[in-house]
Design a protein that fits this description.
There is one protein chain. By secondary structure, the protein is of the alpha+beta class. The chain has 5 domains: 83 residues, SH3 type barrels (Roll); 95 residues, no CATH class; 107 residues, no CATH class; 215 residues, von Willebrand factor, type A domain (Rossmann fold), CATH 3.40.50.410; 139 residues, no CATH class. Helices cover 30% and strands 27% of the residues. The strands form 13 sheets. Strands 31-30-29-32-33-34 form a 6-stranded mixed beta sheet, with helices on both faces. A 5-stranded antiparallel beta sheet has the order 8-7-6-3-9, with no helix packed on it. Helix 7 crosses helix 8 and helix 11 runs antiparallel to helix 12.
């Protein structure tokens, strides 16, 4: 046989062998084109070599071990098995074996009921006579056996999401698998979302979206109060008791004039009741420790009190502006200059108007200009100054150029924080504002940074400096040719990745291309920080006086507490000396919706939604508003069929369908009719309904885009005009797991 024949035979055999291996490779199962990620739901779940009980156990899995699904089968007893493996490619997996479906978390999102995420709040019970706090124990299995208990008990009452529910047949107890967010964003890091199994008797189930929120729009008015029983509230309405003699269990802080997105609301526990024409609600609340009608307060060691008093009223705000100094950014230089000018010019007037009884806040600015690594000078910075003219001079003297090849964005942040380290005031609240159009390394954004900077190292820098991180992206990828869109989007992707590693309440990101809006946004953000500075001073003063303890779970939110902790650490003070056992109790009570004396609204309905749900509502309203009033019956039926994937009949009620699939309250009277009755309405009624849906559609789009809207009405035509007048924060929660509280009256159809 010739050498050529031998080679051809060998090559042929190798090809056959390769094709055979390719054909035999176990591919991952796909659902709608996506991988199916699963996780083991208890530690020690058995992985078998075959799909039946008596088969060999290859190994016992770890808690929340991650796999992808290869295929599924049922054995002769009807037990459902899943073949799992590690993902290699869309054509190949590394098979690990068979696991019972009951031992796996098959869903990557929380469970829903009638379009609404199932939620639960931990009920923390605390005996004031005991040092023990009866928190909710988290387990690595839905079993009562204490061997599965792990980590610290949950003593902070917050809204959690339900991923699974199982009964332990040995103990007869039921356990719920809880998560911090409504979806697992990174399947390889499920413990970033999943908390563990919690006994049902430690949970308050909240499977609606409706909550109560203080109505801050009608001040001045009396503070809203929370009462223990329905009888207490009824006696106030019926005037059978002196209101001052009825013991309240919580009271609204009327000094706080704004409700922030991250502030807690009050889940509505049951349907509203009515007493003598006044509506009342039973609500759940997360609050301070309350014993005998008073907040639990602990005395502060006099020696430690002095340390805290020195921090009171002396918290400056240090603002670091890190600005892309490339040629494309020249148009935005005035936004930064004018923002610094406006803040310093208005700070005295703002102080005298808003906080006249307190020491005036000091705001210091530092500016950094970064350019391409390939430029001879790619980092320039001016130290902190209170003089905006110094910032103006620094920016105007900068030579804007370059910026496409390898902008040194990460290096700009890193060197700024390193240089500012010795300049920070120990009592300051710190904010780094990043402004740019493309990510680190520009066209080479997928390449390694020449100085070794990464998302992780920049995140560590920001954490170490205890600085907020605020990113403004001044470009829209859709305005660029396709080959440049990845470069432009890299700014947002890198910024989001940094934000995911930081405290979400201290991060923010906007995409703005208007210099005026950029200036307004910088001003709004710094003013918000100044407000928090005044609030933090009050918080520290209260801690020093023993009025408040860290971890007390104030009804007004936690951001001031976090800032106070940062300032303590910056000054060498241990916050643990002032901790109130890190416990916030959950309870229920009754409230009046309106004040019987003034008839002013005390509470309003709000609805909790995530970004996907809001966008789905926008999609539905978008379809419904495009329909001609002449064809409204068929048009709205088609819109709901498209949105729900179900057949819609003429006698169906749109409100019922919307509530079932989107889980939202529907207020429109038109939508409460059947499609047949809607089709018989006069044209004026249909036009009015469509106009109202258009208004809500515009407002919802503004929420998604974090825009502030001003609505005006034309005197002649009566038509409404919608104008974007700035940016405002609506969303809270982790990046890609954001949620929003929406006023039901304003936003719901």
């Amino acid at each position: 046989m010739s050498l050529r024949s031998v080679c051809n035979t060998l090559i042929g055999n190798l090809l056959v062998f390769g094709l055979l291996n390719y054909a035999l490779a176990e591919k991952p199962k796909l659902l709608d084109g996506d991988l199916i990620h699963v996780h083991t739901t208890f530690e020690g779940a058995a992985i078998h070599d075959r799909p039946y009980d008596r088969s060999k156990v290859i190994k016992n899995s770890e808690w929340l071990e991650h796999f992808v699904v290869i295929k599924e089968e049922k054995d002769r007893q009807g037990v459902h098995w899943v073949r799992v493996g590690d993902f290699v490619s869309l054509n190949k997996t590394n098979p690990k074996g068979w696991i019972k479906k009951d031992d796996l978390l098959m869903n990557q999102t929380a469970l829903k009921e009638e379009g609404i995420y199932k939620k639960a709040i931990v009920i923390t019970r605390w005996d004031e006579k005991s040092d023990e706090i009866a928190g909710a124990k988290t387990r690595k299995a839905p079993m009562a056996d204490e061997v599965y208990v792990y980590g610290q008990a949950l003593t902070i009452s917050a809204i959690h999401y339900v991923y699974d529910k199982r009964e332990d047949f040995l103990s007869g107890e039921t356990f719920t698998l809880l998560g911090r967010d409504p979806r697992i964003m990174d399947p390889e890091k499920p413990d970033g979302t999943i908390l563990g199994w919690v006994n049902d008797n430690m949970l308050f189930k909240w499977n609606t979206r409706l909550a109560a929120e203080y109505d801050k729009s009608n001040y001045p008015r009396k503070a809203a109060k929370l009462y223990e029983t329905r009888e207490d509230v009824s006696s106030i309405i019926l005037k059978t008791q002196d209101p001052d003699a009825i013991k309240e269990i919580a009271r609204e802080d009327i000094e706080k004039t704004e409700i922030l997105p991250e502030d807690p609301r009050f889940p509505i526990k049951s349907r509203e009741k009515e007493v003598a024409g006044y509506k009342i609600w039973e609500i759940g609340f997360i609050g301070d420790q309350i014993v005998a009608g008073k907040w639990v307060q602990s005395t502060v060691d006099p020696g430690k009190k002095g340390k805290l008093e020195k921090l009171t009223w002396a918290n400056p705000v240090d603002v670091l502006i890190v600005f892309d100094g490339s040629g494309s950014m020249f148009a935005y230089k005035d936004a930064v200059i004018n923002a610094a000018r406006q803040i310093q010019a208005g700070i005295t007037a703002y102080w005298m108007q808003k906080h006249p009884g307190e020491a005036k806040a000091t705001v210091r600015f530092s500016a950094t200009m970064y350019r391409d690594y390939e430029e001879s000078v790619h980092f320039k910075r001016i130290p902190f100054t209170e003089d905006p003219s110094e910032i103006e001079k620094f920016i105007l003297n900068h030579d804007f150029g370059g910026g496409v090849d390898k902008p040194a964005l990460f290096n700009g942040i890193a060197e700024t924080l390193s240089a500012a380290g010795g300049e920070f005031d120990k009592k300051s609240i710190r904010l780094l504002i990043l402004i740019g159009d493309m990510g680190n390394m520009g066209l080479s954004y997928t390449s390694a940074d020449p100085r070794g900077h990464t998302v992780e190292t920049i995140s560590k820098h920001l954490k170490k400096s205890r600085s907020d991180f605020y990113a403004i992206h001044v470009a829209d990828a859709s305005d660029y040719e396709p080959e440049y869109r990845g470069v432009i989007n890299s700014f947002m992707e890198q910024s989001k990745s940094i934000m995911e590693n930081l405290d979400q309440e201290k991060t923010e990101m906007y995409q703005l291309t208007s210099p005026q809006l950029i200036k307004d946004q910088i001003v709004a953000r710094v003013v918000q920080i100044i407000d928090q500075r005044y609030g933090t001073s009050d918080f520290v003063a209260d801690v020093a006086a023993g009025i408040r303890r860290i971890g007390s779970g104030s009804l007004t939110g936690t951001i001031l507490e976090k800032r106070a902790i940062d300032i303590m650490i910056q000054n060498g003070i241990d916050p643990n000396d002032y901790v109130n056992k890190n416990v916030t109790p959950f309870g229920t009570g009754w409230v009046l919706i309106k004040d019987p004396e003034s008839d002013k609204q005390l509470f309003k309905h709000v609805v909790l939604m995530d970004k996907d749900e809001v966008e789905r509502l926008i999609s539905l309203l978008g379809q419904m508003t495009k329909v001609s009033f002449k064809n409204v019956k068929q048009g709205w039926m088609a819109a709901l069929e498209h949105e729900t994937g179900e057949m819609v009949l003429a006698n169906d009620n749109p409100a019922v369908i919307i509530t079932k699939h989107l889980g939202i309250p529907v207020k429109s009277g038109v939508l409460s009719m059947s499609f047949t009755d809607i089709g018989n309405l006069p044209a004026s009624a249909i036009k009015e309904a469509i106009m109202e849906f258009e208004r809500k559609l515009f407002l919802l789009r503004a929420v998604v885009n974090e825009q502030e809207i001003k609505i005006t009405e034309d005197d002649d035509s009566g038509l409404q005009n919608y104008n974007v007048v700035g940016s405002t924060k609506h969303w809270f929660g982790a990046i890609r797991n954001q949620r929003v509280w929406l006023d039901a009256e304003i936003y719901m159809p």
